Amino acid sequence: MNIDHELRDALRRKQAPPDLADRVLDRINTSAAPAPRAGHGSSMVMRWLAAAAIVTLTVGGAERYYTSQKAAEAARVQKELRMALQITSETLAVVQSKLSQPADNGGR
Amino acid sequence: MKTTLALVAFTLLVPVAASAQGARLNLSFLDRLGERATEKQEITIDRSMLSTAGSALVGDGPNSAVVKQLLSELEGVYVRSYEFDDQKAFSMDDILAIRKQLAAPGWSRIVANEEKDKGGNWELQEIWLFNPGGKVGGIFIINAEPGELQVVNIIGPIDLLKLRGLGGVLGIPRNIGIN
Q1: Do residue A90 and residue B49 have CB atoms under 8 angstroms apart?
Q2: Which ipTM value was assigned to this complex?
Q3: What is the mean pLDDT of residues A16-31?
Q4: B130: which strand partners?
């Protein structure tokens, strides 16, 4: 048998089996409503738990970062305020000492 | 007509702007002095920063209540302190821009000391109060000596006598302040 005959034989039109349409429709219906797989429910719960954990960690981390930033800012302001008040007090002391000096230097 | 309206608007707005400025002085004129200083402290603390840190700064002690009240009433603390190697690093002209602002209504000088010697050295100490309507709304202190300049502008109903309460409370020597 040469290749020409083999091709003709393979491509020859054949009549479809009479129950083909029913089998196809049965297959479609079966695929549209697959049977529940074992462990599918617990997998969804795990996904939700993972998402909740990520959200909790993100919010908690952001809050902790904000709190530490605020504490650092407060400490910086406290240091600057302490320095400002110290300079103020020292400047007042200088003015006071200048004023208490003898008035022969033109001071008041 | 438009010119008249503009003049009226200008006349009305100028006092508003002056009032808004209040006891806060523009200290930016000192920035160029800061660039030449060998040591400097430039501190700017506004009302929100004071509310953040003010009360937490003061612990328990005999004067803590006075200091807490003093800090709670403040609206701003602005300090510039410079030291220079050159004894003539700045002149009176350098601080004139700030002193001109003290000519605004509400400011009154309560202490002044100015000295000049034959060598051209001079020094100046002044305390100004901002008290429009008899109510103290701020204070300005300046100490200018050869090679040294301190400027303090505190906004709020500050009482000079209460400043003495700072002695011994915030790490400040107990024996300084004014009588």
Answers
A1: no
A2: 0.72
A3: 84
A4: B107, B138
